[in-house]
């Protein structure tokens, strides 16, 4: 029996091209072409990217301009609103309250002239009661519209007085502390901003929080005015409110607070957890404030 020759793997010879130099030229040519192709695609893509980038930059500039004009419009709305509030407060105080006082005095005089047993005395007493109520309502309105204390006392004392009055009206105790702002005179626009934010925050505490305590801290912290209002009430879901669109639901208080802080070059943050109270933080760099003589526009 004849033995089969052993199978040797890998020994099969490749067919050699009859023209080796021709092949490698072809390969080089192909390589060059694909290189050129790639190069032109890269150039095209780079040009596209550059164009996109320029379009984006133009959009950013446009958005910034839109935001600036929005803030500018908002600032003039807020300033007009403040001026109008002042005018209303003055008018109410000077005109209306004088006339109410005169009405009260007139009614009292009438009562003195009528016999004590006259059935009209009862009617007069009722009218006098209404006049008294109107006087009180008007004082509260003037107090809300334009706190005279802010002009006379400056922010720290005006806020201290406001929180004292608020405490009596709401029955909720407030701890008010101020640090580092004692003798400092802040620009009037900034004082109004912080005062109004505190007012709105306290109004929210009264309306929504069911708190048993409020603490307010006003300080100059490394050249930044900080206002912190904290309550121990029932809290709320801040993200939920932003998601649902607070403005769509007619809640403008928090939005107005944020915008006021932004207009003064600062920021407002709210931390709240259902069941664990709410804290409003406002921080405004004092360096961002217009100096005396500048309007801030
Ligand atoms: N201190 C707070 N405690 C509990 N809930 C609050 C507080 N502040 C705000 N909220 C919630 O946030 C909502 C939006 O407040 P705001 O924008 O001031 O609108 P408004 O007071 O008119 O409802 C309120 O309706 C309330 O649910
Ligand atoms: Mg509110």
Please tag this protein with its features.
single chain, 297 residues, alpha+beta, Heat Shock Protein 90, 2 domains, 5-stranded mixed β-sheet, 61% helix, disordered C terminus, binds adenosine-5'-diphosphate, binds magnesium ion
What are the bound molecules?
A: adenosine-5'-diphosphate, magnesium ion
N-to-C terminal Cα separation, in Å?
A: 112 Å
E-strand count: 5
Count of separate structural domains: 2
Explain briefly what this protein structure is.
The chain has 297 residues and is α+β, with helices and mostly antiparallel strands. 61% of the residues lie in helices and 12% in strands. It folds into 2 domains: 27-146; 148-291, 2-Layer Sandwich (Heat Shock Protein 90), CATH 3.30.565.
């Amino acid at each position: 029996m004849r033995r089969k020759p052993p199978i040797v793997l890998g020994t099969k010879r490749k067919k050699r091209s009859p023209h080796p130099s021709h092949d490698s030229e072809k390969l080089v040519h192909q390589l060059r072409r694909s290189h050129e192709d790639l190069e032109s695609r890269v150039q095209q893509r780079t040009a596209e990217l550059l164009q996109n980038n320029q379009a984006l930059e133009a959009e950013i500039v446009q958005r910034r301009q839109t935001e600036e004009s929005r803030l500018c419009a908002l600032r003039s709305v807020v300033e007009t609103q403040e001026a109008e509030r002042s005018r209303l407060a003055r008018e109410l105080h000077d005109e209306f309250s004088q006339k109410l006082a005169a009405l009260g005095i007139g009614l009292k005089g009438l009562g003195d002239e009528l016999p004590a047993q006259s059935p009209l005395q009862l009617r007069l007493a009722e009218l006098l009661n209404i006049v008294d109520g109107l006087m009180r309502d008007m004082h509260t309105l003037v107090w809300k519209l334009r706190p005279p204390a802010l002009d006379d006392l400056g922010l720290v004392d005006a806020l201290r007085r406001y929180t004292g009055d608020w405490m009596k009206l709401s029955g909720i105790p407030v701890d008010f502390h101020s640090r580092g702002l004692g003798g400092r005179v802040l620009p009037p626009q900034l004082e109004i901003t912080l005062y109004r934010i505190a007012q709105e925050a306290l109004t929210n505490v009264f309306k929504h929080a069911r708190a048993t305590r409020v603490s307010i801290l006003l300080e100059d912290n490394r050249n930044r005015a900080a206002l912190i209002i904290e309550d121990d009430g029932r809290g709320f879901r801040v993200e939920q409110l932003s998601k649902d669109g607070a403005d769509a639901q007619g809640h403008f208080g928090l939005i107005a607070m944020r915008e006021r802080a932004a207009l003064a070059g600062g920021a407002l943050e709210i931390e709240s957890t259902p069941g664990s109270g709410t804290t409003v933080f406002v921080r405004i760099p004092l360096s961002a404030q217009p100096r005396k003589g500048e309007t801030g526009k």
